[in-house]
Amino acid sequence: MRxxxxxxxxxxxxxxxxxxxxxxxxxCTALSTPALAQEPAERDPASEIVVTGSLxxxxxxxxxxxxxxxxxxxETPRSASTVSAEQMERFGITEIYDLVAQSPGTFTNSFFGVxxxxxxxxxxxxxxxxxxxxxxxxxxxxxxxxxADRVDIVRGPASPIYGPSKTGGYINFVPRxxxxxxxxxxxxxxxxxGLTLGSWNKTDLTAQIRGPGHIxxxxxxxxxxxxxxxxxxxxxxxxxxxxILQAAFDTDLTPxxxxxxxxxxxxxxxxxxxxxxxxxxxxxxxxxxxxxNAISLDTDGDGQMSVEEINAAVPGGLxxxxxxxxxxxxxxxxxxxxxxxxxxxxxxxxxxxxTTTLSRRKTLTGKDDRLDNNATTLxxxxxxxxxxxxxxxxxxxYDSYENINENAYGFSQLHDSWVFEDKIVVSKxxxxxxxxxxxxxxxxxxxxxxxxxxxxxxxxxxxxxxTQGYDPASDRLxxxxxxxxxxSYVDGHYTDVAxxxxxxxxxxxxxxxxxxxxxxx
Length: 521
Description:
The protein is mainly beta. The protein has six helices and 21 strands.
């Protein structure tokens, strides 16, 4: 039950009367004479009214995915925060940034406005999906959270059953289940449709349905989720266009054998936001911006400056640092007018300079900038429960993304990677008068194929006049456009073979010990 109290504003006159009444009561209290103590009247227990309530937002059970054992968040030997679907809906959590308010020790890990993960205890956190590590996403695309049934934010390394991990912490996404709470199939379907409209043409449509089904005599549960967003932005040349599809299925093949499988597809189209250039205190205080056009280096007339054209004009590029450009050092007297008015350094100078008031909506994002990403995640778990409370689980997991990121001022990157992991977890629990002792053994194999290309040696933020936009003097020919001149380009593959053991010794006299060991080759 929820108990709410509402307060409304009062007029000054009624507030004054209230203050006078309070003062009078305090005065009467100060002038009153002591009264003789009286025996309190006995209360009738039947007349007492007890009001209880719960938000049901902070889960205290069914969070075994945090560490591998079926323990509550209180009993789990990790500093962890669990954010349920109810909590996300109640507090309006729609982006990974919003999780910071729900978990101490976390910070936004924003890469030019794109939230891929959180910083946990000062380290970029990894992202897991149902206890299996996904491909790294420092800011290649915004990690979707709306389709999650629960998000576990764990401070500290992951369970060795999950494989090698960073020491700071990780985020584990638990998708919506095809079963009701408690493990039984739902009695009937249930669904929900939502539409969010907001400023700057924000339009976000969501739909979900879950329930029971039959194929012949085979019963199964299903959970389907879809989200389509087509939104503008406060910032010029920026938008969000994304589609999220998620499905989960669950069926009992035999009384002792269960199959769980599903996946998620995420198509994202957006841009990065590089912020302002030509930054001064006046720009921050009142929007006063330095205008002026860069000298064009586009000698072939194709509308962009290439790496070859830049080096032909200024050998080594335009990244000239202070007095070093003129044979000087770190001291200010090395920077002279003659240094920057002589060739070739004069090619860095702006022409037709002036000042104007810059709209806060204008940033380095160009009209042709793009951040495109397609991510696919698939899983299939086969779970056998044998006699004596033994369980053997085989988890198959696939994750991939194709990413391209282009920014006209001079940064671009591409990613085309995928990973497949197969893991077996054997679990057994023993109970006796001495306590409860749980053991897990897990061999696994993980294969990763990757292709990464980055282009960042020729980034020139200040050549573009934000009041006019990019032109041949400021628009750089990117490595992803010409398939050339990458700062770094790597492709390859590798295989990890691991074996992990985990035990939880919960003694009856109150001591709980967790031990683990893992090896990886």
